[in-house]
Design a protein that fits this description.
By secondary structure, the chain is α/β, with parallel strands linked by helices. The chain has helices at 2-21, 27-42, 107-121, 167-178, 227-241, 249-262; strands at 50-58, 68-74, 88-91, 95-105, 132-134, 137-138, 156-164, 189-192, 197-202, 217-222. It has one domain.
Length: 264
């Protein structure tokens, strides 16, 4: 299949680009270069409706996430702040999820990445349902009709590493971190390109579970040379499952009007 072959070719290009990044002496420059590689490689394989940026995400109570490597946001309806800068501020309602990019997934970097994803998943936003046709339009149904109230806008959290912990050590360190991290705040997928494995949520029977379903544990799967292709396919599938709901601007309007009237 042409799509799969294109992704396999991209994986080879990524390996070469990462080797080139080692020519940089300054660790900060290495990190920025590697994040740029991922963004530039991701962009051609994502529809333009999905924006890619970097920065912090906030909710209507002014709580913010940690600094996020790659924020995936709604590029059509969202109101991203400071779009002309390298770091942006994103309303949580406009965010599909995030990707933590690590050149070397050490224990510290794994813990930091999980904490960053948790900081996003803690942000509060109104649930979207099957009645939310678009972020700004909600379908009205007649009296007596019912529709599922299942939440359709969970945050997606992915960790993508080029190298790092061996499969066995990773499994142990992940298990340790999950003991002190609430299940609802955990990453959804973790990939290691060079070590050729991925972590995915499974239920009690070992079956893979979706974004909105409870899970029992993480399963570790060997991905061989297909780590990047499976990551891209997983990302696209998940993004197409998420239905965003625009911020309730009435809340902001009422807050401002209250302040204006109090100062009359």
């Amino acid at each position: 299949m042409k799509l799969i072959q294109a992704l396999k070719n991209l994986s080879e290009k990524l390996n070469a680009e990462f080797e080139d990044s080692k020519l940089f002496d300054h660790s900060g420059e290495k990190g920025e270069f590697r994040e740029q590689i991922i963004t530039e490689l991701l962009r051609p394989f994502l529809p333009n409706a999905f924006g890619l940026g970097s920065g912090q995400i906030f909710d209507q109570s002014d709580k913010s996430s940690n600094q996020i490597d790659i924020v995936i946001f709604d590029a059509i309806y969202s109101n991203v702040l400071f779009k002309n800068r390298n770091n942006n501020l994103f309303p949580c309602e406009s965010v599909y999820g995030e990707i933590e990019v690590k050149s070397n997934l050490t224990t510290d970097e794994l813990n930091k990445s999980i904490d960053n994803i948790a900081s996003l998943k803690k942000l509060n936003r109104a649930d979207s349902t099957m009645l939310d046709i678009s972020p700004v339009y909600k379908l009205k149904i007649g009296e007596g009709l019912k529709a599922s109230n299942a939440k359709l806008n969970p945050y997606l959290g992915i960790i993508y590493a080029y190298d790092g912990l061996t499969k066995e050590t990773f499994a142990n360190k992940l298990d340790e971190k999950l003991k002190i991290t609430h299940k609802t705040l955990t990453p959804d997928f973790i990939f290691n390109q060079k070590r050729q494995y991925m972590a995915i949520k499974v239920d009690k029977t070992g079956q893979v579970v979706g974004l909105r379903h409870d899970f029992e544990r993480f399963g570790i799967i060997n991905t061989n040379n297909d780590t990047l292709p499976i990551m891209f396919l997983t990302l696209n599938i998940c993004l197409n499952m998420i239905r965003l709901k625009a911020p309730d601007y009435n809340i902001y309007w009422k807050r401002m009007m209250t302040e204006i009237l109090e100062n009359q």
